[in-house]
Amino acid sequence: MHFCLGAPLARAETDIAITTLLRRHPDYSVAVPDNEFTYQPTVIRALTSLPIKVA
User: Fold this and answer.
1) Cβ atoms < 10 Å from Cβ of 34
2) What total number of domains does the chain contain?
3) CA 54/CA 15 separation, integer angstroms
4) According to a count of CB atoms within 10 Å of the terminal CB, is the N or C end of the chain lower?
5) 30 forms bridges with which residues in the sheet?
6) Alpha carbons 28 and 25: distance in angstroms, whole number
7) pLDDT, block means (10 residues), the chain with 55 residues
8) Looking at residue 31, what is its pLDDT?
9) Range of the domain at 14
10) Interatomic CA distance for residues 43 and 1, integer angstroms
């Protein structure tokens, strides 16, 4: 097992990007029903995508 030195930077960039997006478009909703979510086939439960509608 290894530790990626870029992981903290990647987490910070993701946090900034998502926060900025949601501030600019506060009227958003998930575009698909909950039962249509698909997940990565890995140990970690991660969505393959999350379609959203921006008003």
Assistant:
1) 6
2) 1
3) 19
4) N
5) 52
6) 6
7) 87 95 91 91 86 88
8) 94
9) 7-54
10) 15
